[in-house]
């Protein structure tokens, strides 16, 4: 089975609809056909300051949500990044084969650092893409199922794998992006120029899977649209409505074309009302399932322990090979 790796940051109390449709849902769907490694990337989370108690809790909540969404630790490897030291070890190697100019071109760093001024950003935020490359290459992953926002980072991972291979000899599989066209970029409901994001300035445009259903319904009903009346998919001129149609189609099974036909002659209010109901019913039991998993912390710890053990065993030979190729003396 082809190998798949992906990760999610424990940077919020709940996944949002973009995380779910762009990433997590596909991880669940890929479990049987692929050999999946799914990781709560706590080391990525500390690229911005985190409260330790909150971080600890959010890592548990992230894993519980992955299980509630349908990941099955019998069929995939679910683990926490900091439990496998190889990620940080290989990240250093990646840092040393990345050009400073190359890293400076990463748009996510530019966007995230601009919020507080580049001078206030950590070096960790700058080297985030190299840690991400290490995450993927450490497991010789063939595919990386992520949202569209990660495409540039994945391109860098591929460049680094190829660079290492051509300098030091075949070592890493060159990973391919696995990005679903229709759901790879879910937009903020209040600001359809930006992607829905855990670290958005305002929560108003965010559908959080663990939020009160009434709050989510209200957010959908007050989503930003446009001054027309026609329900039509047109990303350029109608980004708000197009985003709602994308979400609707992803959850409903009907295509966007079919939805356009079904809502011909209807107003935006009808679309929003139906979509709000669909979202509420789709995630109706998600919170309960997540809470039930969190209520058994020993079971969760056992899943983490087993996942870390499997991940460490998979990572070790690749790290050894990379170290050897680089000219590091064997540790005997
Ligand atoms: P942050 O803003 O803190 O980076 P995030 O919302 O981007 O948070 P991540 O943990 O960085 O969440 O990303 C987890 C996965 O979700 C990644 O594969 C990412 O590409 C995907 N993803 C994030 N936002 C969206 C979105 N709006 N649409 C589709 N996929 C998304
Ligand atoms: Mg992100």
From TrEMBL:
Binding annotation for L-tryptophan: 135
Chemical reaction(s) catalysed: tRNA(Trp) + L-tryptophan + ATP = L-tryptophyl-tRNA(Trp) + AMP + diphosphate + H(+)
Protein's UniProt keywords contain ATP-binding: yes
PROSITE patterns listed in its UniProt record: AA_TRNA_LIGASE_I (PS00178)
Subunit structure: Homodimer.
Similarity comment text for this entry: Belongs to the class-I aminoacyl-tRNA synthetase family.
Name of the molecule in the record: Tryptophan--tRNA ligase
